[in-house]
Amino acid sequence: MSMRARSAKPFLLIAPAVLLLGLFLVLPYINIGIMSFRNPGNGSPYAPGFTTGNYLRLFSDSFYLEQIANTLMIGAITTFACLILGFPVAWQLARTQMRFRGLAYGLVLSPLLVGIVIRSYGWTILLGNNGMINRTLINMGLIDHPLGLMYNSLGIVIALVHVFLPFMILPLMSALQGIDPSIEAAARSLGAGRITAFRRIVLPLSMPGIQAGCILVFVLSLSAYVTPSLIGGLRVKTMAVSVVDALIDTFQWPFGSAMALMLSLTGALVVLIFARLTRMKWKAN
Amino acid sequence: MSKPLLTGYCLVIYAFLLMPILVVVGASFNAGAFLTFPPQGLSFRWYVVFFNNDVFMRAIRTSLWVAAVSTVISGIIGTMAAMFYIQHSGRWKESVRLAMLLPLLLPEVLTAISLLFFVYSIGIGTKTIAAMIIGHVLITLPFVFINVSAAMESYDPAWSLAARSLGAGPITRFRRIMLPLIKPGVIGGCLFAFIISFDIFTISFMLKNIGTATLPIQLYDYLRTNFTPEAAAVSTVSIVLTLAVVIISEKVLGLRIHRF
């Protein structure tokens, strides 16, 4: 084997992946960046020439600003709810020697094997005005009129928490598994109460998992389309739903691109600030 | 939290996680014409309606076909990339890993839109199924990469060297030595790629065309205008298909799947 062939060969292994990612991920992202500065077309998706008008239209229209704010709010509440609901489950999976640990782990993973359309559909059956929850409550005589659980932000948050909870539990669990239980025991033996030991020992040490889980859930809920679309219906639209509708129904490519980029960049900014704040806190401890 | 309290709390969360799925499965046996609760008796009528519905049957075939083709392509590209990552990436290791996970880190809706504009601007468009397969390969690639590189961590390059000193060429070395040893990772990664591809929505939704709707898209379209339990029957069959794939490969191959 010649020297040249030997040194060139390893790169052939990565070449298809580089080609795929370069051609169908990097170039399309550059393209959408350019597209967001194009002139809106009349009858065609876009017209020649460039403008900053798409972004100006976004920033000057209170409708879109409110929508971005609402989407970020839904994302933040979903993330917080996942953290609060998921932490004890992750704790139990990581710490206790249950007989059914394998089963419990499978239960956490199982929703990931069911498509997102099906899971959202399940929530429409549960939350609808004639849905299972409202019917049951009415039949029990607890309420007279159906509670408004669907077609609003509350319904979207409930369904999103369900869809993304496994993505919070899994990183939390791996972070908690990495903490030696004897450290906590040592703190307790030195006189720290349960809460103090949790706050000063377990919480700071599990911070990488909390951070990873929160970022994952937040980003996923910002770009979620199916769940807000099916649960929110036409009444409550998140930004991702508006973007896709703007592109599919009205073919406003440049404006749709600006909206999609705006949403992603705002999300990235929130993630960066969050990462900064949590890292500072974690170091201070 | 005390122990019984913690256990009780966790049971509530597990019930919450399973609830919508169980509800869909339960609704599929509803005999009534609408999703009423409590159900109007048990029946398989919506399964019969579903199996006679050409639109849904075609969508299932499209889904299986797209998932199979994407899995093979991303299985090959992802395995090669993982081999490079573990054995040859050197000081570029972190960059290679980050690049390979990129499709997972970027918001799917943005990737889908970018890809839609791109396939139109280079003239492929969405008339053929090629655009959708490219999208599925992109999204599933990280899962193959994660699983194969996890399996390769425990592969000792000395084994390849030993085979080479005994006269085995590069292809024989891969086929006879490395592949059998990393097989669980490759199959696990491909399995995950298949399931993800079978279920993903946004990418398919943006890149679909008339006649190339996958099952999730067809189901979504149906749900926007219809309320019969047929959708529940479709969903249940889809869940059973996925579970069958997972259980068979777990029992037969004894796999461990790495999702992260």
What oligomeric state best describes the polypeptide chains here?
A: heterodimer
Estimated radius of gyration of chain A: 24 Å
Number of strands of chain B: 0
Helix content of chain B: over 70%
Number of helices of chain A: 13
Number of helices of chain B: 11
Spatial separation of the terminal alpha carbons of chain B: 29 Å
The H-and-E topology of chain B, N to C, reads as: HHHHHHHHHHH
| Order of strands across the main sheet of chain A | 1-2
Structural class of chain A: mainly alpha
Low-confidence stretches of chain B: none
CATH-scheme architecture of chain A: Orthogonal Bundle
Mean pLDDT of chain A: 87
Characterize the structure shown.
The complex is a heterodimer of chains A (about 280) and B (about 260). Chain A is mostly helical and about 280 residues long. Chain A has a single domain, classed as Orthogonal Bundle (MetI-like fold). Helices cover about 75% and strands about 5% of the residues of chain A. Chain A contains 13 helices and 2 strands; from the N terminus they run H-E-E-H-H-H-H-H-H-H-H-H-H-H-H. Chain A has helices at about 5-35, 55-60, 60-95, 100-110, 115-125, 130-140, 155-175, 180-190, 195-205, 205-220, 225-230, 240-250, 255-285; strands spanning about 40, 45-50. A two-stranded antiparallel ribbon of chain A has the order 1-2. In chain A, strand 1 and strand 2 form a beta hairpin. The longest helix of chain A is centred in the first third of the chain and has 34 residues, at about 60-95. Chain B has about 260 residues and is mainly alpha-helical. Chain B has a single domain (about 25-255), classed as MetI-like (MetI-like fold, Orthogonal Bundle). Helix content of chain B is about 75%, strand content about 0%. Chain B has 11 helices and no strands. In chain B, helix 3 crosses helix 8 (about 170-200). Chain B is globular, with a radius of gyration of 22 Å. The model of chain B has no long low-confidence stretch (mean pLDDT about 85). The chains are: A mainly alpha (about 280), B mainly alpha (about 260). The interface between A and B is large, with 77 and 81 residues.
